[in-house]
Amino acid sequence: MIFDIKSPILGFEQIKKAKIVQIDDFFARLESQDDKTTFTLINPYGFRDYAFEIPDYYIKLMDIKDDSELRVYVIVALNSPLEESTMNFVAPIVCNMTNNTISQVILDTVGYPQYKQADRIANYINKDN
């Protein structure tokens, strides 16, 4: 499925169309259809409680309705070992599956101080297991 990017990924404004490839229950890959850029995405709900209100600007931009099917991912910067990888909870990728649109939603850090831009996966792994 090809998505139209309505609000660009910061620093990658040239990407206008992308495909999301689901890797497993946690990981996905966003592949630009405009160039060879790819991003590793992760399901944030597998790691923590994660909730935010989508600002009206993005709701209008993506034509989000009450019955729209939405998926949320965060971009992960992979490192070795995997536990040192970081997740960006401040700028989630919101996908409207109903009309095939994507936006990177930039959250107000004052309103969401619990979310970090570079939060280590290690912070969410139970080391007792």
Automatic annotation (TrEMBL):
One Gene Ontology biological process: regulation of translation
UniProt keyword Transmembrane helix present: no
Broad class of where this protein is predominantly found: cytoplasm
Record-level GO cellular component terms: cytoplasm
Protein keywords: Bacterial flagellum biogenesis, Cell projection, Chaperone, Cilium, Cytoplasm, Flagellum, Translation regulation
Subunit structure: Interacts with translational regulator CsrA and flagellin(s).
Function: Acts as an anti-CsrA protein, binds CsrA and prevents it from repressing translation of its target genes, one of which is flagellin. Binds to flagellin and participates in the assembly of the flagellum.
Gene3D superfamilies linked: BH3618-like (2.30.290.10)
InterPro entries: Flagellar_assembly_factor_FliW, Flagellar_assmbl_FliW_dom_sf
Organism, as annotated: Campylobacter sputorum subsp. sputorum
Family: Belongs to the FliW family.
HAMAP family reported for this sequence: FliW
Name used for this protein in its record: Flagellar assembly factor FliW
